[in-house]
Structure prediction request, 201 residues.
Amino acid sequence: MPRVLSSEDVEAFRARLCEAAQTLFAERGIEAVTMRELAQALGVSPMTPYRYFKDKDAILAAVRAAAFARFAARLEAAMAQPADPLHRSRNAGQAYVDFALAEPQAYRLMFDLSQPTEGDYPELQGAIVRARRTMTVHVEAMIQAGQLEGDAELIGHLFWSVLHGMLMLQLTGKLAPTIDPAKLRTLASQTLVRGLGIVTP
Prediction:
């Protein structure tokens, strides 16, 4: 008679499946993330993963939802530190960089993977909305403090685009060997601050 699984057992195995999916993605790319490969990685029968997730798409949605939630939590914590709005914005930027460099495969699954079915997963949708909010809230604070003028959403996406582009070049090894990624980010930040006319305290 099969053992009755507790909710803790189910969540623990779901977490193992998600971890295995992220590892397979890191090692061999998205094509390697199949239910059969996941079962093999965990040493279970090919049908076992289907007891916990409908299919590969659902597993990837769960992995991405958790990553977006961790990402948002880091940026929210950084912006909660007592400081003027500009420095909170810089704190958020550093938290963004720290997350991407600490969890590069999760970061790439978040932003590099297109899932046409995202709308089918409320948890993923909520995590994406929460993460996207961190891209503009620090800009809104600078506008309210009189340090900046303009469209908060547009400016937030400008910061995001520049930072994401630099990080993807770094993570994929596309930066020239002579380029220091940290110095490049500092130069970009200084250039944006001057170009947008941000009033520094």
Q: What stands out?
A: Helices lie at 7-28, 35-42, 56-79, 85-102, 104-112, 122-144, 152-171, 181-195. The chain has two domains: 1-53, 63-195. The two ends are 69 Å apart (CA to CA).
